């Protein structure tokens, strides 16, 4: 039986204030999201796998400087970039991930190669780069990840205490230095990208990629590359990609919890995702959201912040994109 294929993507969740976003910036985000949804939808329309669709969508999100992943990744406290990505195939429960890579152009492609060509699930730092090099993936000079917007954001974050959640203009506004009046443009501050899809063969897949949190300590790894926390897929339940305060998503095993609630207590996709984002994560001050699809083609995109760059596209239909609540 053929299912109606669908893809959903996100470009990060957080304090995205309508008042702080120019119409021009808003248009750019909508255009980027719908262009990428179109590309993912084409893969599915051609009979491609959910795994191929999410990999392609996340690759394009990584190449787009608007989002905190790949090219547009945020800076670490050391002024460098450390990128994390993961991918999971709901048909086989195979998964691949890399973290702390600094020169791999598209971390999601490295994660995909791990899934396909390694007996392991996750590689880190130098080992991940050696694996990616052996796989013939494209490498870039670390300066490729330098964008002026992220650099300015980092300079401001360095004046504040600790890390700045990539999500939160309010965080910066609340901690900015005396005399420093302009809070960081919220349109530039959000982190992590992801995609989930259901293909016409009834299989689901998920992929997540991030630069992490602005001014994070070198070596810090968040939820994005962790299977079960930032990414999960199982044909029997759903596919999930998360964005938010990574440490809380790790402690809650947020992505897997959506799947587990469906499997163990028979929750619907929507009820399970809502419970994780609106009830469980807030208990430990977890802020952010997730995108999820199930094998019936249901889609849900809940978030507990002001906004989340997001959208979905069913094959043959016009993509729907949104930013605010
Ligand atoms: N979850 C990501 C991390 O903690 C950040 C984000 O989604 O903005 O690395």
UniProtKB/TrEMBL annotation:
The record marks 191-192 as: Cleavage. Keywords: Autocatalytic cleavage, Hydrolase, Protease. InterPro entries: Ntn_hydrolases_N, Peptidase_T2. Substrate binds at residues 220-223, 243-246. The active site is at 192 (nucleophile). It comes from Caballeronia glathei. One of its GO terms (biological process) is proteolysis. GO terms for molecular function: hydrolase activity, acting on carbon-nitrogen (but not peptide) bonds, in linear amides; peptidase activity. Signal peptide: none annotated. This is Isoaspartyl peptidase.
């Amino acid at each position: 039986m053929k299912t109606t294929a669908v893809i959903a993507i996100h470009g990060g969740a957080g304090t995205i204030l309508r008042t702080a976003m120019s119409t021009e910036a808003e248009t750019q985000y909508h255009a980027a999201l719908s262009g990428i949804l179109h590309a993912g939808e084409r893969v599915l329309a051609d009979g491609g796998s959910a795994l191929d669709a999410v990999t392609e969508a996340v690759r394009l999100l990584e190449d787009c400087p608007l989002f905190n992943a790949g090219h547009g990744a945020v800076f670490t406290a050391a002024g460098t970039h450390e990128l994390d990505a993961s991918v999971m195939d709901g048909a086989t429960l195979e998964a691949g991930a890399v973290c702390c890579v600094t020169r791999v152009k598209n971390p999601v492609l490295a994660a995909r190669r791990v899934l396909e060509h390694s007996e392991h699930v996750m590689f880190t730092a130098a080992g991940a780069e050696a694996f990616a090099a052996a796989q013939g993936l494209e490498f870039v000079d670390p300066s490729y990840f330098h964008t002026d917007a992220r650099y300015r954001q980092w300079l401001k974050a360095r004046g504040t205490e600790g890390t700045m959640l990539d999500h939160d203009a309010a965080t910066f506004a609340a901690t900015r230095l005396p005399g420093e009046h302009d809070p960081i443009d919220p349109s530039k501050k959000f982190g992590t990208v992801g995609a989930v899809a259901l293909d016409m063969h009834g299989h689901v897949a998920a992929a997540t990629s991030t630069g992490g949190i602005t001014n994070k300590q070198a070596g810090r790894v968040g939820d994005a590359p962790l299977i079960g926390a930032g990414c999960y897929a199982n044909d029997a339940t759903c596919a999930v990609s998360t964005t938010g305060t990574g440490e809380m998503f790790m402690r809650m095993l947020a992505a897997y919890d959506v799947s587990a609630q469906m499997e163990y207590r028979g929750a619907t996709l929507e009820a399970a995702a809502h419970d994780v984002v609106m009830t469980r994560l807030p208990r430990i001050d977890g802020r952010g959201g997730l995108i999820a699809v199930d094998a019936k083609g249901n889609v849900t995109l809940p978030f507990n912040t002001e906004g989340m760059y997001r959208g979905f596209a069913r094959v043959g239909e016009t993509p729907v994109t949104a930013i605010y609540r």
